[in-house]
Amino acid sequence: MRVLRLHGPKDLRMHEEPIPEPGRGEVRLKITSVGVCASDLHYYRDGRIGTTLIAEPLVIGHEAAAVVDAIGEGVTSHKIGDRVALEPTNACGECMFCKAGHFNVCPNVEFFGTPPQDGCLREYITWPAELAIKVPDSMTDDEAAIIEPLAVGVHAVRLADLEGGETVAVLGAGAIGLSVIQAAKVGGAKRIIVSEPVAARRELALKLGATEAIDPSTSSDIEEFKKLTDGIGPDVVYECIGEDGASYLASQIVRILGKIVVVGIPDEDVYTFHASPSRRKEMTVIFCRRSNDAAETSIEWVTSGKADAKSMATHRFPLEDAAKAMEFAMAKKDGVIRAIIAVS
Q1: How far apart are CA 43 and CA 8, in angstroms?
Q2: Which CATH number do you get for residue 104?
Q3: CA-CA distance, 107 to 194, in Å (whole number)?
């Protein structure tokens, strides 16, 4: 089978490797579509995310759709030909965090495309059957690949525990920011104000549930948020940019006793908050780690029309052009939200 491995920064090489056999409790999956996530771009560009380094050639990619190709011993929940979205988090299930339902922060977790666990830019994988979640025939492969980032948005909004009627700010309208916007809308937010410099992304944000959009390249985020909230500030700020300084901005615009949910991953592995206003506001900061038991909810939302995954899967590339997809996504060309790599 074809396997694309990242040997170092911007060094993707195609390999021919044996097709794996599923073990007990596993299914073998033929990968169809894989979304290019910001974390994939960190590995591709820098060979690392924070202190996590690529020491051996790694298969990246964790936002994936697939078809069940073979059944391992003891699996009765799936059959060959089932179409699935993949839950990329394989938690141990035994630690104190797993037993409390916090699978996403399991210290023993295996996560696709994170060293040493290979990801999905390969034709076949084996994975626990319970983590291959069936999708309806009405859902395309590309939509199924978007289920994972949508689940991150669902989890991020759950962390803020919205009661309904809030004014929410979303910094950044990439796939994660757009997922947060849709989840906040379902969660009952009254106003959703997005800040995004790319015009096509602002337009899509408004289509998917944002009530107002700010272009930070032409005006001050701080002044615009003050103006739009009568000087009070948003109740909840979702930081989805993943750029240095975004958390600092969030701490400046959030209201007194407000909440910040940090979802983005900064290049320098440092989050900075403006100390004086942060302390005076007694604000709450919540860090979002991937998603947690939100994939089924995301599938239901897409199936029922509560969320739109199709509009986020904007561009497709064959596996051989994965490097082009990465470069395209990093440059944010042509209104790209999620570049999808068609593996099979």
Answers
A1: 8
A2: 3.90.180.10
A3: 33
Query: How many separate domains does the chain show?
Result: 2
Distance between CA atoms of residues 139 and 216, nearest Å: 35
Q: Which of 105, 92, 90, 232 is nearest to 159 (CA)?
A: 105
Question: Taking the C-alpha atoms of 293, 100, 236 and 156 in order, what is their torsion angle to the nearest 10 degrees?
Answer: -20
Per-residue pLDDT tens over the stretch 166-218: 999 999 999 999 999 999 999 999 999 999 999 999 999 999 999 999 999 99
Q: Are residues 207 and 266 in the same domain?
A: yes
Q: Which amino acid is at 338?
A: R
Quote the percentage of the chain above a pLDDT of 70.
100
Q: Tell me, what CATH number does 260's domain have? A: 3.40.50.720
Q: Is the pTM of this model over 0.90?
A: yes
Q: How far apart are CA 180 and CA 237, in angstroms?
A: 11
Spatial distance between the Cα atoms of 81 and 141, rounded to a whole number of angstroms: 13
pLDDT in tens, 112-166: 999 999 999 999 999 999 999 999 999 999 999 999 999 999 999 999 999 999 9
